[in-house]
Design a protein that fits this description.
The complex is a heterodimer. In chain A, 79% of the residues lie in helices and 0% in strands. Chain A is mostly helical. Chain A has a single domain, classed as MetI-like (MetI-like fold). Chain A is globular, with a radius of gyration of 22 Å. In chain A, 35% of the residues are buried. By secondary structure, chain B is α+β, with helices and mostly antiparallel strands. Chain B contains eight helices and 20 strands. In chain B, strand 4 and strand 5 form a beta hairpin. Classes of the chains: A mainly alpha, B alpha+beta. Chains A and B meet through helix 8 and helix 9 of A and strand 6 and helix 2 of B. Bound molecules: adenosine-5'-triphosphate and magnesium ion (MG). Magnesium ion binds next to helix 1 of chain B. Chain A: Belongs to the binding-protein-dependent transport system permease family. Chain A: It is found in: Cell inner membrane; Cell membrane. Chain A: It comes from Pseudaminobacter soli.
Chain lengths: 266, 356
């Protein structure tokens, strides 16, 4: 590898740091903002306190919205993981032409503008009486999350040798046993990755949620969006901080699971 | 664990991929305890045949019987067949012991019994003490033995191996071949073995099936196939050969009278079944059966190349017709490039075979 001139390396690194800074710092700014003592967001805060965290937890509407978000995200993730994994396995068995077409169909929710999906879901949800329900929002988010599972599991499946499955079934394993003992352990990192993306997709999703939330079942991002139009209080920063922390924790988990797979201990 | 396995019978088994015929309707009978090798060029249908027997492919026609059981419609898991894959197909997330014990575990064999049988087969394969090793930490040769152990531990009625040694280097391959032969002699069970490697086939097999273009071209012992090839493909594929185009004038009592253009002579030689008067055929002369200067009235030829291989030498011989033959003789330093020689052969060693 040829060494770059010093000025180029310094210049390159500085540029990269700047870009990263521009991307990340505004997001991280909400963390100190959430520890303001005053009822207005000062940056940096003039005095620190955890008072807005208390306020967040005391307020029934904020609490409910957090719980709603968690419920919706868990449900959406669970359904997306099951359906997405099945879809990925099915896609792998298809012939080339069919596979490309149907894959595109599964990935469509990632490409179609979310607001279009949201309008479509809004109409359909009204028809089947799912509008304003947790289940309705979960199903909506599930559709947005599905591509992440299909992609992640699809990639993981490429690492599963067809011959392992043949060997396992030749040794006496039925289809379910072979899936459970051979396929599943080898695609777990892909499933976990897909699940994390699904969860985060749902947890911070606002467009579909606004359309489907109704009055009583607001999710956290919907509540933030509503609040921010009324007043600019540090509680919003608290809510945002919680979302960031959750995202970081989930990505860390996904990282651990996939790196733990690649280098088996012992 | 002395179990010689069961006989295997295929009748009219065929396979097509779309319009492409990978296996023409094929009959094959393998005796209990026999070691049969499928030998043939790439794409000749060896793996297809093996996969049909194992139950990984469904035949378009025909029946497959193991022992007295018709398994044609049974899924692979109900056939009790052990298969060793070219790539081994070992389960990467399991230890050596778990890999070998997999077939026992899914059959609901008890833990204790499974442990006992796994350690038994480990020692049979000279892998004692490796049970708890992750599979990735085993060398190529060790993985090959684990794959074989995994197939053997379920006591299969038939053992199938698809080019199991092709991933090993040449030296290791020799060792494992001898090991396989020892295993088969001690614990012989019905085995079908696929290889590209003629020598390997000769070392291991009771019988060899030579395949080409989705068809078993000849099935027989090593001697049958080498000395009495059924057609020009088999003659050319097994060992080295000179194959000369001939026109058949007459066939009687297993001998054909043929016009050999290259020799400008008519000769009489033993003929394979399928050689018919009035048709073209091939005359097979093995390099080691050609004689130089043993008679005066042989076919005149000129030595155009002499390669010393130690005790033996290989000679390139140009006939007056322009045809070039290869001869292999005990080294004789008086034979040099450019010399004219008289070429002959023991009439019993020539053979007329159909073109295909
Ligand atoms: N799934 C498939 N679809 C279409 N054609 C196939 C398929 N599998 C095999 N074939 C074709 O069938 C023929 C026989 O294949 P097969 O794998 O049995 O050959 P082989 O004798 O095992 O060759 P090799 O020595 O290269 O392993 C080949 O021409 C191959 O291209
Ligand atoms: Mg093959």
């Amino acid at each position: 590898m040829s060494k770059l001139p010093l000025w180029l390396r310094i210049g390159g690194n500085s540029a990269a740091s700047l870009v990263l800074g521009f991307l990340v710092l505004p997001i991280l700014a909400v963390v100190p903002a959430s520890f303001n003592k005053a009822s207005f967001i000062y940056l940096p805060p003039r005095a620190y306190s955890g008072v807005w965290y208390e306020r967040f937890l005391e307020d029934a509407e904020w609490r409910t919205s957090l719980l709603n978000s968690l419920q919706v995200a868990v449900l959406a993730t669970a359904i997306a993981v099951v359906l997405g994994t099945l879809a990925a396995i099915g896609l792998r068995r298809l012939e080339g032409r069919w596979r490309a077409g149907i894959t595109a169909l599964f990935l469509a929710p990632m490409i179609v503008p979310v607001v279009v999906t949201a309008v479509a879901l809004y109409r359909s949800a009204l028809d089947v009486g799912l509008s304003g329900s947790i289940l309705g929002m979960s199903l909506g988010h599930m559709i947005l999350a599905l591509p992440f599972v299909v992609i992640n599991v699809g990639i993981a499946l490429r690492g599963v040798d067809e011959n392992w499955l043949k060997a396992a079934s030749g040794l006496g394993g039925g289809p379910w046993t072979v899936f459970r003992t051979i396929t599943l352990p080898n695609i777990t990192p892909g499933i976990v990755g897909g699940a994390v993306f699904s969860f985060i997709t749902s947890f911070d999703e606002v467009v579909v949620a606004v359309f489907l939330a109704g009055y009583s079942n607001k999710t956290l991002p919907v509540k933030i969006w509503e609040s921010i139009r009324l007043e600019f209080t540090p509680v919003i920063a608290v809510a945002a901080t919680m979302m960031i922390v959750l995202a970081i924790v989930l990505f860390a988990v996904a990282q651990l699971v996939s790196s733990g797979r690649e280098t088996p201990t012992k | 664990m002395k179990n010689t396995g069961l006989p295997l019978r295929l009748e009219g088994v065929s396979k097509r991929y779309g319009k492409y015929t990978a296996l023409t309707p094929t009959d094959l009978t393998v005796a209990a305890g026999e070691f049969l090798t499928l030998l043939g060029p790439s794409g000749s249908g060896k793996t297809t045949l093996l996969n049909l027997i194992a139950g990984y492919l469904e035949p378009m026609s025909g029946t497959i019987e193991i022992g007295s059981r018709d398994v044609t419609r049974l899924p692979a898991r109900q056939r009790n067949i052990g298969m060793v894959f070219q790539s081994y197909a070992l389960f990467p997330h399991m230890t050596v012991g778990q890999n070998i014990g997999y077939g026992l575990a899914v059959r609901g064999v008890s833990k204790a019994e499974s442990t006992r049988r796994v350690s038994e087969v480990l020692s049979l394969m000279r892998l004692e003490g490796y049970a708890d090793r992750p599979i990735q930490k085993m060398s190529g040769g060790q993985q090959q033995r684990v794959a074989l152990a995994r197939a053997l531990v379920i006591e299969p009625d038939v053992l199938l191996m698809d080019e199991p040694l092709s991933a090993l280097d040449k030296q290791l391959r020799r060792t494992v071949q001898l090991e396989l032969r020892r295993l088969h002699q001690e614990h012989g069970r019905t085995t079908i073995y696929v290889t590209h490697d003629q020598e390997e086939a000769l070392v291991l097999s009771d019988r060899i099936a030579v395949m080409d273009q989705g068809r078993i071209q000849q099935l027989g012992t090593v001697d049958d196939i080498y000395d009495r090839p059924a057609n020009a493909f088999v003659a050319g594929f097994i060992g080295e050969s000179n194959l000369l185009p001939v026109k058949v004038n007459a066939v009687a009592e297993g001998k054909a009278t043929t016009e050999v253009e290259a020799f400008r002579r008519t000769i009489v030689a033993p003929a394979a079944p399928g050689v018919e008067a009035g048709q073209t055929a091939r005359l097979l002369l093995r390099p080691e059966h050609l004689l130089l200067n043993e008679t005066d009235d042989g076919v005149p030829a000129e030595i155009i190349e002499a390669v010393y291989l130690g005790e033996l030498s290989q000679y390139g011989l140009a006939l007056e017709s322009g045809q070039v033959l290869t001869a292999r003789r005990i080294t004789d330093r008086s034979l040099r490039t450019g010399m004219k020689v008289s070429l002959s052969w023991d009439p019993g060693h020539a053979r007329v075979v159909p073109e295909n």
